[in-house]
Design a protein that fits this description.
This protein is α/β, with parallel strands linked by helices. The chain has ten helices and eleven strands. It has three domains: about 110 residues, Winged helix-like DNA-binding domain superfamily/Winged helix DNA-binding domain (Arc Repressor Mutant, subunit A, Orthogonal Bundle), CATH 1.10.10; about 100 residues, D-Maltodextrin-Binding Protein, domain 2; about 80 residues, 3-Layer(aba) Sandwich (D-Maltodextrin-Binding Protein, domain 2). The strands form two sheets. Strands 3, 4, 5, 6, 7, 8, 9, 10 and 11 form a nine-stranded mixed beta sheet that branches. The protein has a two-stranded antiparallel ribbon with strand order 1-2.
């Protein structure tokens, strides 16, 4: 065998071995991701119906092929090494890319279907429910379940696919994917039946109220604040889009000309956990809001154009 032929055979052997390693790495990285997310080998094994020893062996083999330690292991704590954290981030991107590839096929060959659990602020029902109705007519095979919530806690514990919120994501929810959707105008409004207004007639959300503030009423959601305004408890700072009909009818009136704004966020599970139905709805909402002419709702693109 000539020297050239020997070199070609050696190179071919290396390439074949690298390809085999890549195939093995892709599978083991998938399990590496689930182990990190579960927080332990035993929880990941129980959740996915595999043996703990099998997962441990996979990670050891993965570390051997890569030549690095990915995890710090001890009986009470499982944590990422520095290089392990980098590999974890790249693995997230890999799983997301694989999901997008699968979704593109589903978009081409099938109608989105399945269940969709949505949490949204009840104060925005008058605006959002007609939008969701049109979405349901467009995608009749998607089953929607609605939950009322101004704030979103850990989405994984609530099995929520999509949450719309007027508050940022919880600080400890680094796995939640956050997408700003729009800016909502907030105004101070009060019942038209009240003639006298003073500073002690302020209705506030509990987590927005100052400790020293002498409010007439504290509530835990915007819809309760709105209903308290209608009942005559005092005034509140509320989304203009939710109050516009009552303002036009004369049931409510402005307290002053001050306007503020809050961002409407869309929260979803980590990329690998986003279903096709969720992706379709997020795209639907983004398009609808970009074309919105609803008073008090300013699409983010319009804000960028102004700036």
């Amino acid at each position: 065998m000539s020297e050239k032929t020997t070199k070609e055979a050696h190179l071919s052997s290396i390439l074949e071995r690298n390809q085999n390693d890549l195939a093995l790495n892709l599978v083991d990285l998938y399990w590496f991701l689930h182990i990190v997310d579960a927080g332990s080998f035993s929880v990941a094994a129980s959740t996915h119906g595999v043996s703990k020893s099998s997962l441990s062996r996979r990670i050891s083999q993965l570390e051997g092929r890569l030549g690095v330690q990915l995890l710090h292991r001890n009986p009470r704590l499982l944590s990422l090494t520095g290089i392990g954290a980098q590999v974890y981030r790249h693995t997230l991107d890999m799983i997301n890319a694989a999901q997008q590839a699968s979704d593109s096929v589903q978009h081409a060959l099938a109608t989105p279907s399945g269940s969709l659990h949505i949490a949204l602020p009840a104060i925005l029902n008058s605006w959002l429910l007609p939008v969701l109705l049109n979405f349901k007519k467009t995608y009749p095979h998607i089953q929607i379940t609605l939950f009322a919530a101004d704030r979103t806690q850990e989405m994984s514990s609530q099995s929520i696919d999509l949450a719309l919120s007027l508050f940022p994501a919880p600080i400890n929810s680094s796995q939640i994917v956050t997408r700003p959707l729009a800016e909502l105008t907030f105004v101070n409004i009060i019942s038209s039946s009240l003639q006298h207004i003073d500073q002690h007639m302020h209705i506030q959300l509990v987590d927005l109220a100052e400790k020293s503030n002498d409010s007439s009423l504290l509530v835990n959601n915007y819809l309760s604040a709105y209903e308290a305004v209608l009942a005559g408890f005092g005034y509140a700072n509320l989304p203009l889009c939710a109050c516009n009909v009552a303002l036009r009818s004369g049931d409510l009136k402005f307290v002053n000309n001050q306007e503020t704004s809050r961002t409407l966020y869309a929260f979803t599970q980590p990329h690998r956990g986003i279903t096709l139905a969720t992706r379709v709805l997020v795209d639907y909402l983004t398009l609808h809001i970009s074309q919105s002419r609803t008073v008090g709702i300013l699409p983010l693109q319009a804000i960028k154009d102004i700036l």
